[in-house]
Amino acid sequence: MGDVMTAVPEHAPCLDVDLTATPWLYPGPWPTSSGTLTAEGYFPGEVGLVGIADDLDRTPVVAVGSNASPGVMRTKLRNNGVSAVVPFIRACVPDTTTAFTAHVSPRGYIAAAPYRQPGTHTTMWVSFLDEEQLDCVDETEAPNYDRIHVGDTLTLDNSEELDGYDIYRSSWGLIPDVQHHTGRDIAPVPFAHRQAQCRVFRHVRERLVGAVPSLPDGSSEAVVTTLWEDGALAGRVSEELHGVAMDDGY
Q: What highest taxon heads this organism's lineage (predicted)?
């Protein structure tokens, strides 16, 4: 990892986020290249990450939302007194895409969740977490996500292959795309990294008409802020989303 540590830190944009203060910016910026997060910055560069997983007893975790943002991950770990050294690498993940969970997070946004879809291949981010980091992230994800193990083989950005990974699946199911109903075949609303909240709120209002009447009107920032500040309202919106939720395929 010496070459990574001596590289010039990548200051922006992947570290410039604080979802505890601006949750409407979920999921936060993702890196532009594989590298290693430290307390000092994000250092782009290629490393033998399969070796890190095997030799240093780190667990590969496929991230579908804010855990793919080094800035978000650094805040989670730092706030809990845990080491912020985390390798990140892009990978081709088979039979998996990303959708929106049918639930409002404690900070008012609707988060991403994985969807098991055979035949697809999606480029996603993999972080390599030690035991203490994994316990920390487990705690931040509970009770709305459960970490599961998937035995698929990933093809990493550095051409290595990795057998098996963990991923956090939603405890509440996914928001469906009603225009994809064909008998029992239902597809979820695809997750969009950019303007994620704008996309999902617009979908709920325009495609799930009347199904989630408690969702407030307004801009993404206004809606997320309202749901963040009004826990009872967020609970009602979540219950309405639970009523239309579809299975995630796992």
A: Bacteria
